[in-house]
Amino acid sequence: MSSSSRASLPGVDLCPGKPPILQAEATGDAPGWAAEHSDALRAVVAEHGSVLVRGLELRDAAEIGAVFQRLATGLMAEKEAFASRRTYAGNVYSSSKWPASQQMCMHHELSYRLEFPGLMLFACLSAPTRGGATAVADSQAVLDALPGELTERFEREGWLLTRNYNDEVGASLAEAFGTADRGAIESYCRANAIEFEWDPGGGLRTRQRRSAVVRHPVTGRRCWFNQIAFLNEWTIAPEVREYLVDLYGADALPFNTSFGNGDPIRADVVQLLNNVYEANTAREPWQTGDLMLVDNVRTAHGRDPFEGPREVLVAMADTVCLFDCSPTVEVIAR
Questions:
Q1: How far lies 59's CA from each of 28, 241, 297, in Å?
Q2: pLDDT tens per residue, range 163-211
Q3: What is the chain's alpha carbon radius of gyration, rounded to the nearest angstrom?
Q4: Is 80 exceeded by the pLDDT of residue 62?
Q5: SS3 helix, strand, coil % of the chain, rounded to 5?
Q6: Which residues contact 78 (CB under 8 A, 6 or more apart)?
Q7: b/e string for 252-261 if b means 16 or more Cβ within 10 A?
Q8: Angstrom distance (rounded) from CA 238 to CA 61
Q9: What's the rounded Cα separation, in Å, for the pair 127 and 218?
Q10: Keywords on this record (predicted)?
């Protein structure tokens, strides 16, 4: 490790209800600053689960991509996306397209995959006029606050994600799998422990069972790690859910979650999950030019409703394999 990569950082501001905030000094060379302070920044994330860096004055997508590259070794290409994104160069993406008026509740990115990012990188090119924070919540605190009977059932059974791909809502087959070729999609599903079936019209239905609680691959901490609430029908705005049920039927929603044995998750359970998330949430409004790093296993993230234009770029890094996280549910790829 070079001496520059061990460069110290100014103190991190720790305020209740906010993520850790580090005030950096703009040098005109944000990628150089990121390279110099990479190890120190990652040490802050290891200690606190996330950090918001303010003052770098990030200016464009190319500069942000260069900063991301210096903070991580190789950025991941997204697979199994649930919503479309704009793609920038070098596996840098826009935030997922999600209605500005709706809360995007807490989740761990791609926690339904067998491989997922250990580190999330965010940068703000345009801050909204109101709301729109990328909020964070400590997954161990959430796990500790949930009723033991509920978490024990999820540990025992896991959770089940069911998806119905169509051309109207959510990511298309090509966006989710990187191809529309039926044979290639089936091969991917078999290799990634995803059950699949095609309908006569060419639509695809998939089911994948995953662990709801894992251990952090570095610290061994037990973490509530899933997208049970986020991808459940009861988190969708009531008028949107009603429209989707009328359009597709209650059993063919674009995505839904259930207990690992297939039992439906009641609305009050989803509300409980979201309430516990909210009680453990920290948030800070974006300012244009901000940078944020989030440990994707230890820390859930979400997005508040907002008004005005909002452009936040995202990258995923530090690939983690589920099998290195002590999953509680057996997963067999075929």
A1: 10, 38, 29
A2: 999 877 778 899 999 999 999 999 999 999 999 999 988 889 999 999 9
A3: 20
A4: yes
A5: 30, 30, 45
A6: 85, 91, 93, 110, 316
A7: bbbbbbbbbe
A8: 36
A9: 33
A10: Antibiotic biosynthesis, Dioxygenase, Iron, Oxidoreductase
Is the confidence at residue 128, as pLDDT, over 70? yes
Q: Are 225 and 117 in contact (CB under 8 A)?
A: no
Which domains occur in the chain, in start order?
A: 1-334 (3.60.130.10)
Q: What is the pTM of this model?
A: 0.94
**CA–CA separation, 154 and 162 (whole Å):** 16
Which tokens hold the place of 21?
A: 């905030």
| Dihedral pair phi/psi, residue 59, rounded to 5° | -115, -30
Q: What is the pLDDT of residues 250-292, one digit of tens each?
A: 999 999 999 999 999 999 999 999 999 999 999 999 999 999 9
Q: Are 85 and 253 in contact (CB under 8 A)?
A: no
Rounded to whole angstroms, how far apart are CA atoms 226 and 215? 12
Residue 34 tokens, joined: 């990121």
What residue has token string 């948030």?
283
Q: By three-state DSSP, how is residue 198 classified?
A: strand
The residue to which tokens 């051309």 are assigned = 167
What angle, 0 to 180 degrees and rounded to 10, lies between the N-to-C axes of helices 61-71 and 30-48?
A: 50
Token couple for 92: 């840098």
Contacts of 106 (CB under 8 A, 6+ apart): 135, 137, 142, 229, 230, 274, 277, 281, 300, 301, 302
- Token pair 């037990």 is found at 222
